[in-house]
Write a structure and sequence with these properties.
Order of helices and strands: HHHHEEEHEHHEHEHHHHHEHEH
Number of strands: 8
Number of helices: 15
Radius of gyration: 21 Å
Helix content: 40-55%
Strand content: 15-25%
Structural class: alpha/beta
Length: 403
């Protein structure tokens, strides 16, 4: 064997070693998923190095993924696409061309990305919004809310709330020929968090007369006080969204001060004064038996009051919609929740389903076996997985039947 062949063999073995990660037998994606995850991990390593060298904030480097996938607002023969503003917040607007004079449905969509990454202009989100607009004959408003680390909570919530409240005015709905009885709010991951929070807050807003027909929460992040749920334990090293990255997202949502991240990692950061909130995330009560996975529940231990009181907004229901009394859940619209088997956020969604049902809210729950966080966006191009396209189609069909 020549030197070149030997070098090629060694390089191939090293690349395969780096790319390979053990996956559950029933998981979707195989080597394609490993390659996607290897790309994410590589970008994460670059972000770590850049941050340690003082060249850029971790999330600023991670945003390269968003920039690389951004696409222009291009209209086609079925949907008119434009970038505009609503209530001074940038949005990407999708208006179907079919039946221009008929009343349409509407979907307010909120992208994910841990409140730090992502955007309405990303190719995967753009495609999802196009499909939704075309197949549902719906106006889609995809919100380009401001991101951390430059902006922290409650800015992201306020941007989404401002657009939602503006669009729900009857005069605006009439302008876009939208049926006020058929408006939906939807979001994935951090976007699901914002959708749930906005939907709760709209109930108490006397200025909002039009009610949402349905909220769709796609593998949402919903609570901030127990980062040791069974799903966090079992899926801590799964592809796309490992536990370490999710905790960094939570921390950056509120501050660039890494002392909060360090406190979150101990799972002992809730001041005793907030310990009454633990009942809302008591997974021994709210998780279906098959998702407990043999874990034994131990109540989270109240921790460092200094850190907790420094960031009391960490326990604000606008940031953590699961931390509200049942009375705040009553009156919510039909709720469609999607969870994934191999996702640290799985149990957030499952517990919300249980609590909503107990409060009398109609719920549709779709659990994707063998799926990972972000599955619905794996629907095209380099990120294409068969399971991703199937999940996206199911999501649109569910909306078609219930909106």
């Amino acid at each position: 064997m020549g030197k070149k062949s030997l070098c090629l063999l060694v390089a191939s073995v090293l690349i395969a070693y780096y790319v390979y990660i053990p996956l559950p037998e029933n998981s979707e994606g195989g080597w394609k998923l490993m390659l996607i995850d290897a790309g994410f991990r590589t970008l994460g390593h670059m972000a770590d190095i850049a941050e340690k060298l003082g060249l850029a904030h971790y999330m600023e480097t991670m945003m390269l993924l968003t920039y690389l996938e951004n696409v222009a607002p291009v209209s086609d023969d079925k949907v008119t696409v434009t970038d505009t503003k609503m209530n001074d917040v940038p949005v990407r607007l999708y208006v179907p061309k079919e039946k221009p004079d008929s009343l349409k449905r509407a979907v307010i969509f909120i992208h994910g990305g841990g409140w730090c990454l992502g955007g309405a202009a990303m190719g995967s989100y753009d495609l999802m919004s196009r499909w939704t607009s075309e197949r549902l004959n719906a106006v889609v408003i995809s919100i380009e809310y401001r991101l951390a680390p430059k902006y922290h909570f409650p800015v992201q919530f306020e941007d989404v709330y401002a657009v939602s409240k503006y669009f729900l005015q009857r005069s605006v709905l009439e302008q876009y020929k939208v049926d006020p009885e058929r408006v939906c709010i939807s979001g994935d991951s951090a976007g699901g968090n914002l959708a749930a929070a906005v939907t709760q807050q709209l109930l108490d807003d006397p200025d909002v007369k039009v009610k949402l027909k349905i909220q769709v929460l796609i593998y949402p992040a919903l609570q901030t006080i127990d980062m040791n749920l069974p799903s966090y334990q079992d899926n801590r090293n799964m592809p796309i969204l490992p536990k370490s990255l999710m905790l960094r997202f939570w921390s950056e949502y509120f501050t660039t001060d890494l002392s909060l991240l360090e406190a979150i990692e101990t799972n002992q950061y809730v001041p005793p004064e907030f310990s009454h909130l633990f009942k809302f995330v008591n997974w021994s009560e709210w998780l279906p038996e098959r998702f407990k996975g043999g874990h034994v529940y131990t109540s989270p231990v109240p921790g460092n009051s200094k850190v907790g009181w420094k960031y009391p907004e960490f326990f604000d229901p606008r940031a953590a919609p699961l931390l509200v009394d049942d009375i705040k859940l009553r009156g919510l619209p039909l709720t469609y929740v999607i969870t994934c088997q191999y996702d640290v956020l799985r149990d957030d969604g499952l517990m919300y389903v249980s609590r909503l049902r107990k409060a009398g809210v109609p719920v549709i729950h779709e659990h994707l076996e063998g799926a990972f966080h972000g599955m619905l966006l794996m629907n095209s191009g380099l990120l294409f997985l068969n399971g991703g396209q199937k999940a996206a189609n199911n999501y649109i069909e569910r909306l078609n039947k219930n909106l």
